[in-house]
Amino acid sequence: MQQESGRRSNRDRTEATRADLIRAARKLFTGKSYVETGTPEIVAEAGVTRGALYHHFADKQALFAAVVEQEAAAVAAEIDQASAPSLSAREALIAGSDAYLKAMRAPGRTRLLLLDGPAVLGRAAMDEIDNRHGNRSLREGLIAAMRAQPMTRLPAEALTVLLAAAFDRAALAIEAGGSAADYRAALIALMDGLSAAPLPSIRPAPSR
Amino acid sequence: MQQESGRRSNRDRTEATRADLIRAARKLFTGKSYVETGTPEIVAEAGVTRGALYHHFADKQALFAAVVEQEAAAVAAEIDQASAPSLSAREALIAGSDAYLKAMRAPGRTRLLLLDGPAVLGRAAMDEIDNRHGNRSLREGLIAAMRAQPMTRLPAEALTVLLAAAFDRAALAIEAGGSAADYRAALIALMDGLSAAPLPSIRPAPSR
DNA sequence: CATCCAACATACAGTCTGTATGTAAGTGCA
DNA sequence: TGCACTTACATACAGACTGTATGTTGGATG
Fold this sequence. Notes:
The structure is a homodimer. By secondary structure, the first copy, chain A, is mainly alpha-helical.
């Protein structure tokens, strides 16, 4: 067995230090913004030195990316956990919406995932993270709901992206004090509209 | 008449210097990100010193806010200019959408207004700016379209906010290489769905 | 024309990021 | 088991940046 004090394997040390750093960074990044949080503060909170930080992460941005990654995974996990398999496509979408909005109420999450994340890592990187963890259930749910309807010949990928953006903005608005019921109703109306409307013909857009 | 060299009134000096700073900052903020752009670089580009900057603006963030403000106004102006008054509500909305997406193709605008803006100034400040310049035509158009339909009893404000978010994301996606036609179709589908669907009854959400 | 104030320029203090260097502890191999 | 090598840090340093304080010049003003 292991001695409880010294005598830790290198792998264990790495894992523990990285976890400490991410935990400390998460706490601070959710309290203040990314720019307002300095690495000296982070390492103080984590109980290590800046040397450890720059040994495990390429730079401050990489540490931030790790925090975002973990947080996105946490949100996805909460949503998956809330999904009951026995629902209709529409019910499942609504359940997923509620789970998402609830998950985003965790303090600081909107700043981390919706404000600083895109600005610091870029939209492309955030899209990649979103597509890896979350958004999967939303896209699948949408496609299922649309497939249930006969005539909707619409770009599913674009619709998914736009609806995800609406979800994000709803989370921000609710956190800012907006009516959760209103935003919920608006989101559902947007989704319902997709599978119901017999669309009028659309002329192509002017190219530029 | 004015001598072309010296002999400028104080008001003129202020106006010119502020304009130079905003112009230089805009150029750099759209090229790199807010954090990557330093005030020494900005004042060099503007041909003044940092003293002038901090005389006219409280801090770097205030200068950024001025740039965002001006850019939002420019976008709104482009949209207003493109709107023909003789269209139906739906046609007007589509024309506005096209004008918005076209306006957002100006290089760096998405970063300025959609990425760095919210992160640096906060969502609340960006909402205030959006509501002052742009978004007005979108909200009015939406309300008009919804009023044309009898039974849509939906929170107009929330719907406007969510649709605006979808527009923003569409602009980002298109800039990232997404199909403009797809996103245009998806946006129109979202809007059309609102005024067409006889909504199924919705149960209230669990409070938390 | 003398005073005052706005519009800057210059100098400085503090902080931050990233890197380079040093050290102790773990790991692999003969 | 002992030794070479590498990993996991800590410390020290260089450069840059932000905001402020101070100085200076040229309009405005009575």
